[in-house]
Amino acid sequence: MRLAKHLAHAGVASRRAAEAIVTAGRVTIDGATVTDPARDVSGDEAIAVDGEPLGAAPRHVVYALNKPAGVVSTARDTHGRPTVVDLVSEAGTRLYPIGRLDADTTGLILLTNDGELANRLTHPRYEVPKTYRAKVANAPVAERALRALRAGVDLDDGRTAPAAVHAVRPDVLELTIREGRKRQVRRMCEAVGHPVVALRRVRFGPLALGDLAAGAHRRLTRDEVERLRGAAARR
Prior knowledge:
Helices cover 22% and strands 27% of the residues. By secondary structure, the protein is α+β, with helices and mostly antiparallel strands. The model has no long low-confidence stretch (mean pLDDT 92).
């Protein structure tokens, strides 16, 4: 098995993130630093990440978190800011977020130690939908702007795919997208003349944020995890 895939299965990080960890020289095999994510391993080697020995793969878990504003969607932050992982400190295993939300975006984010599931839920191929509530400026939002968002708008990194959009209130839109571009919802709304004032993710695939309080989290049930797997297996 390739080293990066082995690390992902062991819950270190998603496969893509594991490749970056190896390339950065943070992994050793039998005491020697390795920088090739494609190196073959059997699992019998003494593998360590940042000097911490890699044990047997822990039981896979997934948590839902209602991310507050100001918290970053990374496992650790070099600037000392609070992270989503800090808010689920009692998990007993190394977690990492499935995708990202901007620091000033709130709402539903998932954390897991299952690298394969994380990769499927974030890979563009599987088009797992994410739904957001956006409070916007220059209300009310005209039907012409709604039609443009639904059809796709031109951004500096290309035209967006069609989105499901409707107005919840004159100044609040609900948007469901199947892409994961950086700050995509904010850029889409700005492109049609309605900059985002506040943004919250309310659904990830089949899972809804519900009444989970800001900063609170809960472990997903086995049924919920299987529904997530199903959402990432339909392409």
